[in-house]
Amino acid sequence: MSESFDPLSAVPNNSLLGMSFTPDSATDEPQAEASEVPIPEDIPQIIRVTWELDSQIPPFENRLEGMVFTLHRLAQLPEIAQANLESEELDALRQIIDENPDALVALPFALPDDGDDFLQQLPRLVWSENIEGVAVVYETDAMLTAAEMQAAPHEAEERQHYLETIKQDREKSRFVVAATREESWSVVHPKFESDPEHIEQGPALVLDLLQLITNGRDDNTDDADDTSAAGGDDTAKPAES
Question: What's the pLDDT at 186?
Fold first, then answer.
């Protein structure tokens, strides 16, 4: 067995399964030196999994692109991955789990390729009992700040012209939002191309994205128009009626 065994490598994809953001005013303060930044001994799992997604997912090639992930407790993985693991690998996975069984892990979830816009599909996600939460990584060059949205004219034609004008030559931003049934966290790179190291973060910085991915959090009813984020399936599919 390889020493670099990654327990998540045995889990196939989907086997588990007009927006704005408000900058954190605290980021207006001078940034502390790296040596001065306190690192909590016990970082909340929702924050940790958001940071991990942000660091592990490379920049997307397209100007408007995103990925969806389902969140699970590490202790859930043996039941899901046992068919894809050798006994020694399964034992190694259990040893990792014993150290932190409640750790959150994010696994990719492919939305149905039905031609809908990425953001339009997010509200259709229905949270099954097999997941702890949902996360999304989204990049766009068309995101506006709350102040810009508020300043937009109300008249439709003037508003459209205003939005097109301020979006010209705008660089891409990255948004990473994760939510469980109890908590949420957001990481934002306002200038992802020119200053990727600068981030804003907080529990609800990207409220619109947060609302989209939690739309089906309390709705476990089947609906032909919904996409079920359920565990144990090889592909994402609409929930059966």
Answer: 94
